[in-house]
Amino acid sequence: MTMRSAGLSMAVVAMAPFFPACNQTPRNSREAILSYDTQDYARAAAIMQPTIEKQRTRMDENYVLDNCRYGSCALAAGQFDAAESAFYDAYKVINSGETNDAGRQMQATVVFEGVKVWKGEPFERAMADYYLGVLYLMKHNPGTARAAFQNSIFSLRENASKDDLEHYKLVESRFALGYFGLGFTNLRLGKTDLAADNFKLAQQYEPRLAGLIADVQKPGVNGLIFVDAGQGPRKAAKGWYNEESVFGPTPAEAGAIAAPVALVDGRAVTRPQVAYDTVDTLAMAQDRRWMDIDTIKKVKAVIGTGAMAAGAGMTAYGADRGNKGMMWAGIGTTLAGAAIAASSQSDTRYWEMLPRTVYVISARLTPGPHDVVVRAGPSQSAPARMTMPAPTAGTVQDAVFYFRLR
């Protein structure tokens, strides 16, 4: 191979990594995320709302993700009806088997994986169901909340080995927060045996929930305070062609976060008053059971690299022997391989508003109006007001609060 032919081959191959990458987050969503991260939740919801209204008539590939984003913003802003509608719309599509039809699947294979309707990783889907359950609890509808929590503990797939992506078995979900919600709703519906089974699994998968489970079963406990805290996992591309995606940081890299304290009418809630840490989304994002494994992008990267290598050889051969037809055929093969490899770019869309963890605090509230706030370190929520009705014999009507702390 001459220096000229070698240089030509190397130049063509070197172009591959510089095919333009897609910015997979629309501008308005980026603005909403920024407002959410600065705790301007009402503005974040207002930015996302036009997108949601538009997608009611025309669903695109970000329909589910945008509804999850909007649901998070509306929930944190206290717009509970809007949040419920958003999470319910996301739930309907997530559980539809016909969303990504053959046309979208073909485009994802040939062009770019991000053309598929985003349904989220399994841990993101579980969290969407959790939020729907909390919202129904807030509306004193334990029966519908139970269905939402039940949906959050769908079966997961566990691969035979790290490198074997084809052989797997279905395994039971380890989503302790979902099992707790299911147990609590069954408890309130008088299904004590089912509640005991649910609580047992919740405690098995997250031993720290033992105290919370004991607390909610004590006489007089009629309040639940859910607190989203910290920043959830971030998704980024990896590899020469960005053909893989990874979540980070790990729990060790992020470190611990401060547990919140709840105050009712300016005073810390009476016992029980411990904030129980129920989930760690950073840990879930590192567990392959909580991720969808798609091999298409890896295969495309391998095929594209092989085509570029073959094309480079053809280009060099044609250049050395003065065969322009062979040389241009080689260049064409190399560029085609580069295009295939570039199209293997992974889908890096993810739900940016997820928290690091969810704390749950139980409380005893007397009849009448109450102002509730939560704080952790320098962060403090706006007050939420709830009027507790006078108790009715034989029933418990819980006051359920939601707060978002950074």
In words, what does this structure look like?
Helix 2 packs antiparallel against helix 3 (41-55) and helix 14 (296-320) packs antiparallel against helix 15. This protein has a single domain, classed as Tetratricopeptide repeat domain (Serine Threonine Protein Phosphatase 5, Tetratricopeptide repeat), CATH 1.25.40.10. With 406 residues, the chain is an alpha+beta fold. It has helices spanning 3-14, 27-37, 41-55, 63-76, 80-94, 102-110, 122-138, 142-151, 176-188, 192-205, 210-216, 251-254, 281-286, 296-320, 324-342; strands spanning 156-161, 164-171, 223-229, 234-238, 244-248, 261-264, 267-268, 276-277, 357-363, 368-376, 379-380, 384-388, 399-405. 47% of the residues lie in helices and 17% in strands. It has 15 helices and 13 strands.
Number of strands: 13
CATH class reads Mainly Alpha
CATH-defined architecture: Alpha Horseshoe
CATH topology: Serine Threonine Protein Phosphatase 5, Tetratricopeptide repeat
Tally of individual domains: 1
* Fraction of residues in β-strands: 15-25%
The geometry reads as elongated
Average the pLDDT over all residues and give the rounded result: 80
Please outline the major beta sheet: 5 strands, antiparallel
Q: Count of helical segments?
A: 15
Contiguous low-pLDDT stretches (5 residues minimum) are: 3-21, 100-114
Distance between the termini: 60 Å
CATH superfamily: Tetratricopeptide repeat domain
